[in-house]
Amino acid sequence: MRLIDKLGLRVGGSEYAKENESFGTSTLQRRHVTVKGDTVHLTFRGMSGSDWDVRTRDKALAAFFNERPKTPKSAPAVCCPEQEGRRRTWQGTVVAAQALGRAAATGDSSPQAVTAAIKQTAEWLHNTPAIARDSYINPRVIELFEKGTVVKGKATDKKVRELLT
Q1: Fewer CB atoms < 10 Å away: N or C end of the chain?
Q2: How far apart are CA 105 and CA 73, in angstroms?
Q3: Do residues 11 and 48 share a domain?
Q4: 56 shares its domain with 98
């Protein structure tokens, strides 16, 4: 869950990985992960052939990967159940809420601000803007922005939940 939360990774599925030679959190292999100090670096091919090259500073993740055997390189790096959906959808919503909150703070309430927030969310998710908007951003975040209601400051899970309720 930590990788999904921090980096926006999909959960992934073994059948999809085999058929498409792409990976998600549950199908990452040891060759995709390097650790230097507290920094975890992931490089892999994701869904739709999107190349991922991401880093995060996280002591707990670094310790987790350092405790795992390093070989064979094709062995699983992470073991978790295959379940796509809610968590990733939520993180897309949080990213969009943050972008829309920033736009509102500068006085921008234009349709272009919505487009920019969707594009930023899509980039964070390594997806297309259409898929980000249709599948990963709660439409109420955009509706509320258009009515002048946004998250103020950093879009935490709590603030976004409060915005949507």
Answers
A1: C
A2: 47
A3: yes
A4: no
